[in-house]
Amino acid sequence: MAILTTSTTATATPTPTATPTAASVTKNAAQSLLTSLNAGSGIDTATLVPSLVEAQFAAKTAQLNAKSNTITTQISGLSSLKSAISGFASAYSALVKGGTLTSQPTSSNAALGVSALTGAKVAGLSSTISVNQLAGAQTIRSTATGVDRAAQVGTGKFTLQFGTASYAEKTTGGTTRTEIDSFTPAGQAIEIAVNGADLDGVAAAINAKGAGISASVVTDSNGDAFLSIKGPTGASQAFTMTATAKSDPGLSAYNIGPGAGNTSVTATAQNAKLTVDGIAVERASNTINNLVPGVKLQLNTVSTAPITLGSTTPTTALSQAMSDIVETYNEVLSTLTEQTNAMTGALRADPAAQALLRSLKTLTLTPLSTGAAAGAPTTLAQIGVATNRDGTLRLDSAALSSALLTNSSAIETMLNGSADGKTGLNTVLAAFATAATSTTSGLGASQTRYTAAQSAILDAKAKIADQSDAMTTRLTQQFSSMNSRVSSYKSIQTFLTNQIAAWNKSDS
Predict the structure, then answer these.
(1) 255-288 pLDDT per residue, tens
(2) Judging by DSSP bridges, how do beta strands 152-172 and 190-198 pair with one another?
(3) What is the pTM assigned to this prediction?
(4) Please, which residues have CB within 8 angstroms of residue 38's CB and are 6 or more apart in sequence?
(5) 366 in Cβ contact with 428 (< 8 Å)
(6) Would you state the pLDDT for residue 42?
(7) Angle formed by the axes of helices 443-507 and 425-437, nearest 10°
């Protein structure tokens, strides 16, 4: 399936029928009356005047209409070319950005998930990682039993403080629980206001603050309500929460920190610990983007043995992309060839269209990468894209498969481009599209020129319309004056005829 598909639909526009005006109706009625009365010259001025005016400007009008039709066709052709080349470039750019043409990282163990970061190049990836400890978030729960979930806790403020903590197990009344043994604060303290709330209201106030900790209320099988609070992952994300001195005593029952007797640590704040190629490292999160270049790591569980990272080349996707490129190229070339045909092309004399055609024909020989290893391919022609005698392309699948077996990394670089975006097919197509649509020297400049010419034709047509109106008025006035004189002459003729007849009658 081609990367780009274009289609056009033409709809015929009906020719409007002229509606008679009041002036024309009156003029025609007057002419009919004069003719029926045998008055005036008997000339049908309602028909003669428009015919004379039309004959006067017919050649010029036909010439302007022909030019207008030609320019309209040229503008339509330009739009087709701009759409074709821009569509080719943008569709391929989207394909590259989708990441389907780049090598993907692999992991030998599900304990460590891997994926490529956007725009990253991971071909040739090789690394060994051990997951020794997952990052953890400090989680605290209240321990007091017999708490009614709907009972009011109190009004006041909690002071929230993040930092680092050490933990210790303590046994009280035969029950062993983990507590915060010591705490070193870091950063600014945060105040959380609570206004006469029950336990759910306390949790809501904590969550509404958006300070990085989340709270919920859990009811056990006995109906006792407990407050659970969880912070972000990482050793530096431990936290304390202490009711201020002016708060109701009920709030202090939910203090978190060293010496807080009514809360217990159910999970400690800690960093993820890994060994990467023999080097011990720590991170605050189980999702890591800054350890292996171009790779996002997702720590799922502690590993029991070193995990091997590698990469896999998307040979199927690369092959399909090459097939799509050839098919789309041929579609764009067909559009260009049609528009620039020396005999029938609307843009056969357009320099921008001709330049685009010449540029497109160099695509298979254009270097798509720089600094490639000796013998590595850098052009489409070197990986199985051949040119037919009519200029269209064909894909030699066997040659492409052979190139993918021996130079998959080089082909991947050609089709995806360099990390700086300065090389690659995507960059070359984008440059073609930019040059083609340029308003200085490309199709954009041609469109500006054609649009200006079309505007000039409209102005010329408007001028002819004004001249036609003036000539119509002048001829109408001249024929009206002539009709008046002829009517006068006929009146005199009638008088003389009658007088002569009377004289002849008297003589007899």
Answers:
(1) 999 999 899 999 999 999 999 999 999 999 999 9
(2) antiparallel
(3) 0.66
(4) none
(5) yes
(6) 60
(7) 30
